[in-house]
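Limitations

Structures in this collection are predictions, not experimental determinations, and the ligand pose is part of the prediction. Treat each record accordingly. The example that follows, with S-adenosylmethionine as the small molecule, is included so readers can see exactly what is and is not provided: the inputs are given verbatim, and the output is the predicted complex.
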Amino acid sequence: MRPEPCSPPTDSPRGLFAQFDKPSGRLGAFVGHLMAWKSGPRSRFVLSMLELAAHHRVLEIGFGPGVDLARVAGRVPEGGVAGIDHSAIMLAQARTRLRRQGHLERADLRLGSADLLPFADDAFDRVFSINSVQFWPDLDAVAHEISRVLKPGGLAAIAMQPMSRGAVADDARRFAQRIQQALARAGLRKLRVSERELRPVLCCCVVGEG
Ligand SMILES: C[S@@+](CC[C@H](N)C(=O)[O-])C[C@H]1O[C@@H](n2cnc3c(N)ncnc32)[C@H](O)[C@@H]1O
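Predicted complex:
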């Protein structure tokens, strides 16, 4: 039987895969640097879905080493960015990256879990997440939190590109359908799935309005 799209490849060390879920220690720091070399095309695709404006306040869930938060911070000079990640080592790497790029003062980075966002209702114009959703144990709980913190009329973009060995485009599509259904149950409107052919496999981004 083929593995689930987000399960570890059967011939990969489980310890390494777990580091993408919650990086920790020296191996986690190394994995954070690997993530920072991430796919530029995937980021550009997802960030293009956000229709950013200079004044926007933007939340990223599962920011990893903070590469996309830094990109977004540069595009919202009159607004700001916030993020949540449950890995202390990712928080440290993201803070360092944002400080070096001069964005830390407009950034509110928190250590915590996606299903309990430490932010006020209607706090954000945009919420996004890239390849973190496959690790969320309770997708409905996170979808409700996204709906809560997103302003009415704001946009959420949740992207997923399955990275396990043997994953195919339909794995991405099936996962996107689950995301779309969870966001619909949480009350987001005008939901749609955008696709982008990327290597090694299709990336799907579910976009919805608060
Ligand atoms: C594969 S990395 C992706 C990082 C970044 N978004 C990127 O595209 O490079 C997944 C990230 O999501 C975080 N994460 C996973 N589950 C989480 C949860 N339940 N709450 C908060 N962060 C979570 C991990 O710590 C990790 O930094």
